[in-house]
Amino acid sequence: MKMPKNCINILIVGLDNNFCAGVAETLSEHLQMHFATCESIISYYVQERELILEKVGLEYLKKREKSAIKECSNYCDCVLSIGYDLFKHHYSVFKNSIICYIKLRLENVSDTQNKIMFKQRDEFLTNYSHLQFTPTRKDKRTVCKNIIEKLGEIL
Predict the structure, then answer these.
(1) Which domains does the chain have, with CATH numbers?
(2) What is the pLDDT of residues 50-84, one digit of tens each?
(3) Is 150 left (phi over 0), alpha (psi -120 to 50) or beta?
(4) Mean pLDDT rounded to a whole number for the chain
(5) What is the dihedral of CA 19, 66, 9, 92, to 10 degrees?
(6) pTM for this structure?
(7) In Å, what is the CA distance from 55 to each residue of 34, 42, 59?
(8) What crossing angle do the helices spanning 140-154 and 17-31 adopt, rounded to 10°?
C-alpha cells in the first residue's frame, strides 16, 4: 500500500483489539500525540445503540457509526487504534494516516472469530496497511520502539 503524502495520524490495527489499543496508547505517550480508540469514539457518538436500532433501524445506526469513523480519520496528530471489523468496513477513510498492522501469531490472538478467520484477516490487513510489525511476544514497549524506528526511517 502506498504511503500517504499528508500524514496526520498513525492508525494501529490488528487481531487483538486490547493489545493494539495498549500499543497505540503507549506510542502516543512516547510521541506526545493524542490517543483514541475508534470504538470509544463510536460509543460516544452512538450512546443509545439499542434505542436507535429500535426506533430508526440498522441502516441509520451504520450511518452514525460511519460518521464517527470519518470524524476519527480527520483528527490531527493522533494515534488511533481500530479493531479488524471496523477497519475492514472503513479503511478507505484513513487516507491521511499511516496504517500499522501488528501481526500477532495465531496462538497470541485471543478473539475466537479472529482465530477462526486468521489467514483471511491477516492477508487483508497485510494488503491494506503501510507497515507491518510481527512481535516475538506481546510486549507493548518493544512494538512501540519498532514503530518509532520505522517511522524515523520513512518520515
Answers:
(1) 9-35+77-154 (3.40.50.300)
(2) 888 888 888 888 888 899 999 888 888 999 999 99
(3) alpha
(4) 90
(5) 100
(6) 0.89
(7) 35, 18, 11
(8) 60
